[in-house]
Specification:
About 30% of the residues lie in helices and about 20% in strands. It has about 325 residues and is α/β, with parallel strands linked by helices. The protein has a single domain, classed as TIM Barrel, CATH 3.20.20. Strands 7-8-9-6-5-4-3-2-1-10-11-12 form a 12-stranded mixed beta sheet. The two termini are about 20 Å apart. The structure holds S-adenosylmethionine and iron/sulfur cluster.
Amino acid sequence: MLDPFGRAITYLRVSVTDRCDLRCVYCMAEDMTFLPKSQVLSLEELDRLCGAFIGLGVKKIRLTGGEPLVRKDVITLVRSLGRRIGAGGLEELTCTTNGTQLAKLAGELYAAGMRRINVSLDSLDPATFTELTRWGKIEQVLDGIFAAKAAGLAVKINAVAMKGVNEHEFDRLIAWCGEHGFDLCLIETMPMGEIGQDRNDQYLPLSLVRADLRKRWTLTETDYRTGGPARYYDIAETGRRIGFITPLTHNFCESCNRVRLTCTGTLYMCLGQDDSAEFRELLRDPTVDEEGLRQAILSAIARKPKGHDFVIDRRTRRPAVARHMSVTGG
Ligand code: SAM
Ligand code: SF4
């Protein structure tokens, strides 16, 4: 599947629910209105659509959300996608989670074929964690992370870098990840959705963070890639890697290989643009067969834009795209 700019689309991110048990301040407003269930694709519909993407060359699927692991019976989707790994054409099935359900589900994720997961953890300080997630308890997440490790899952910790919030914690996060054998990835805040506060106050350019970390850690750039946009560095002192996702200071669109499906069956061809294609009605139309689905996917891919226009704009102070990150799952 090639887009108009010759980029092969091999990576599908699937938001399986817009709901979440937390309300991270940079991601959601406190009083979010969630979608009515009738608009949300069933797990069978999601599985069928993922199957069509795999048939067209998608090799990696990441489940995300909202919080993917709070969707009822999500494990049945994980199992069914897991069966497509290998001869089925899928190379990797993974997920991005806030970790709250991992103590319960990590073993089942591994058994279904998952080998790596990303867990979001912006702070190791219990009070800061609760403040950032509006009511989360860090113990629950740490228990989940260690359950995942014990189950055999490789864990990467994702932390959104925020000025004045967790910027003094990066050394601690690096050391803690090193101690437990986790990679770490720092993410710049992206201007998505109204969150009830000014993003200019949070934005921290990772180019500055990296330069500062280099004063204390020996960072060597590597070619390591996970199919995502992060650039990785080996940390000599811990033997682990640190990645930086920098949509604002370094535009990574030229190597974009992915598209994003929401839980309502809307396909976004770019995280930072509004153009989309709808699949729910097609999936529910008995006259549309697998070939019809394939053609609809191909014509959506043919509209994939060249790149995003993210900018944290001090004049308009409006988000670059109106939808929240929880719609497409990052
Ligand atoms: N609930 C899961 C979690 O938190 O990992 C999956 C969905 S969450 C939307 C996916 C990732 O997006 C998380 O790592 C989160 O920190 C990040 N994220 C959310 N809003 C963001 C924003 N405005 N800018 C940058 N990253 C954001
Ligand atoms: Fe929920 Fe993840 Fe968004 Fe936090 S970042 S509110 S855990 S979806």
